[in-house]
Protein: Short chain dehydrogenase
Amino acid sequence: MRVAIGDIDLDLAKATAAELGHDGQVIALPLDVTDPTSMEAFVADAEEQLGPLDVFINNAGIMPIGRFRDETPAGAARQVDINIHGVLNGARTILPRFTARHGGHLVNIASMAGKLGVPGTATYAGTKHFVVGWSESVLSELRHDGIPVDVTCVMPAVVRTELSAGAKATRGVKDVGPDDVADGIVSALKVPRFDVFVPRIGGTAAKISAVLPRRGRELLARATKADVTLLEADTSKRGAYELRAAQSPPRQVQAASDADALTAPAEARRPAEEPGA
Structure:
């Protein structure tokens, strides 16, 4: 297995690479997903060191929690820059390479928030709705043009990482760990499919919610406590993450974000942790 990890926090990426691999099979490279030039350099360096990639995981995302009316324009712009433009920059860089090689698999990490509006994360949910809809459109374009490249959209519920610190439990939908998300991705790499819900019951919840009238959705959210999972999160447990997620303006190389992107050559079939919910 050969994997390249890209992150704006290079020290963290190096530590993760050292934990996961040896003999140069897992490498760490600098990456600012909001910068197209940085993304191009990352992919070029990864392929130079590891060979042609056939799996690319768009894993960028930050999730500040709070009511929309309290959100600053800069805070919203930062989420859009990382959560949306980061994904676009990754896909725009890797898809021409996949197309030229007549194969590859693009994996976009979205969220259950990309299917259901989640109180307390309005802008975040909006960015994840974008990732889901955009991924569907890109896959349709590839199929229409006869390009044999697969696209998968991963929609985890609450994942036990720093990003979801302090979140309340949702009835009927257990929280999951990064390994559960990784298992879902691996299964989609082995047998390609677009939708990957983690846990799987999340897909059932999304389907039920989609056919309910507005009042029914609200009652379901209240019954499962999904309406307060993030809105009433324990803020005392989120201080470090919120500070790191907001510590610099968008499009700055010094900005701190969660793990940005993972790429894997042909042998690689096991991604690292997904930091999002």
Notes: Helices lie at 10-20, 36-50, 73-101, 122-144, 178-190, 201-211, 214-224, 239-245. Residues 249-261, 266-277 have pLDDT under 50 and may be disordered. Residues 183 and 270 are 8 Å apart (CA to CA).
